[in-house]
Amino acid sequence: MSILVNTCRKRKIVFGILFSFFSLVSAGEVKRADFFDASDNHLMFITFAEDGNSYEVFMSDSTFVRKVALVKKDGKNEKAVSYNFNEDTSFVTTFSYNSTNTEMSVRDEFRNDQLGGKVNFKEAGDSYEVSQSGNVFNKMNYEKNGSGDYNRINVTDNSGKLQYYVKLGTTGIARLKSVLKNGNAAVLHSKGPNCFELKLRLQESAHINCDIFSLSGRNVAKLFSKDVAAGSSREMVRVANGDVANGVYLLSLAINGKKVLNEKVLIQGVKGGF
Questions:
Q1: Domain boundary among 153, 169, 185
Q2: Which of 150, 199, 205, 257 could form a disulfide with 187 if both were Cys (CB 3.0 to 4.6 A apart)?
Q3: What is the value of pTM for the model shown?
Q4: Is residue 109 part of a domain?
């Protein structure tokens, strides 16, 4: 049990450090960072604000996780506050800098420590040793491309075995899923847990059906069925707590009975609902 707890804690520490230390690269042209495990499974991505002082975290299926905003920065100390989709405070991360050594701590909205103590890392150029209570457990290395821009971060254990890596992109935010059929366009955009926005562009008026299906193909919820006029329009789709059990489903959209969108979505319990 203690091994499992320590593993989860170290994983949380690694992601906490990666999320917070994009200040090194986000001030440039980086717009998005994609996280992968050692087996190349896509885990999540984050997108950066133009001013470099905030970013948003999404799971690999574009489900919104949280927004992080830098609220204090004076050269020696930094504080970043994480918010959920309701703008409630989730975590507060603080940093203290001293030459090439940095100390980090994370507390939740109740001021409870989230990492089991302060985490330290020592800088050596573009590499870092990550430690806690004097024990080094991870190493991080920032890589540059041929143009001298940071384009990847590797996280390894002490033996050099890769655990995670992050690809840094300079292209715009690309978390929209869309399809174009017979001149009609439908775009699905995650707006937070259990909340989605459908953007429609219809060549002519049509009847639209939106449903939730299980991965086995069973219809578990009818979200709406309505006539929509030609042109561009938006529909907000909210799945209320209790309507559908937590899990991964397919959100399906049909135009005049023809399915044009069938995307995986994550339905999860939300405090307070919508």
A1: 169
A2: 199
A3: 0.58
A4: yes
* pLDDT tens column, 93-139: 888 887 778 888 888 878 888 888 888 888 888 888 888 888 888 88
What are the pLDDT digits (tens) for 145-201? 887 777 888 999 888 999 899 888 765 443 333 344 445 777 787 777 788 888 888
How is 202-267 classified by DSSP, letter by letter?
Answer: ESS-EEEEEEEE-TTS-EEEEEEEEEE-SEEEEEEEE--BTTB-SEEEEEEEEETTEEEEEEEEEE
Please name the amino acid found at residue 220: V
Are 139 and 156 spatial neighbours (Cβ–Cβ below 8 Å)? yes
> How far apart are alpha carbons 273 and 244 in whole angstroms?
13
d(CA 126, CA 254): 50
Range(s) of the domain holding residue 262: 177-267
Instruction: Give the integer Cα–Cα distance in Å for 31 and 22.
Output: 11
